[in-house]
Specification:
Blueprint (H helix, E strand, L loop, with lengths): L2 E5 L5 H10 L5 E5 L11 H17 L4 E4 L2 H6 L1 H7 L6 E3 L2 H8 L11 E2 L4 E6 L1 H6 L1 H7 L2 E2 L2 E6 L3 H6 L3 H18 L5 E4 L8 H8 L4 E3 L2 H14 L10 E4 L3 H12 L6 E2 L1
Parallel strand pairs: 1-2, 1-3, 2-11, 3-4, 5-7, 6-8, 6-9, 9-10, 11-12
Helix pairs in contact: 1-11, 9-10
Amino acid sequence: MAVGIFDSGLGGLTVLDAVEKRLPDVPFVYLADSANAPYGVRTSDDIYALTCAAVTRLFDAGCNLVILACNTASAAALRRMQESWVPPDKRVLGVFVPLIEAMTERQWGDNSPPREVDVKHVALFATPATVASRAFQRELAFRAIGVDVEAQACGGVVDAIEDGDMILAEALVRSHVDALKRKMPDPDAAILGCTHYPLMQQEFQDALGGDVRVFSQASLVAESLADYLLRHPDMLGTGASDFLTTGDPRRVSDRATQFLRRQITFQSA
């Protein structure tokens, strides 16, 4: 009855941690494509091919439902996968929609026409590929009108986090926030559009200031998944909990253990 969770690296562990706490009886298979990370600097075709390969591996592990806990994959590959690739008996879901629904105060699955919302000026921090896809703006336009989005491509942050260099990551966060604020001095809200970024949420908040509401994805995705499984219990699939990586299992395990502050042991995918 396993659910698959995929990320290009270890950022998706922030989502895994939240969904495990919300759904303690559900086993999860986590796959990190560490050998090919980061995805944020790749072309959309590369991201699509790599994401399809990873999701196929999770299907093979007994997962009927896979969560793309990677904003870059959700932005650059998900729609194309859903339209032409995902088998009829499987589901692949992304992480953008729960975030946008929370920001626009819409209930899960509310398909009413877009309307005005309280938030007017939104700062989006994401990888270069996510920014280039404009997927966030497209999904937002389905649900809200009159919202100005200023996107900032945060080059280097994922690499620094994956390398465990949090001092460099903090410096990069402050640099990217400064660059964003030169374009949008007074955002109402900020979206951390990469599942690595919650590890730096306090640094983003400090750089933005206390008046800016910072939206992070992990808990929102966990609630959305719990609701989805309540309505679609057949999507639980088979299999048992596991951690898989295309990279060096020992190195990835050490880094994951540091991230979650509990022992995590990865196997070769």
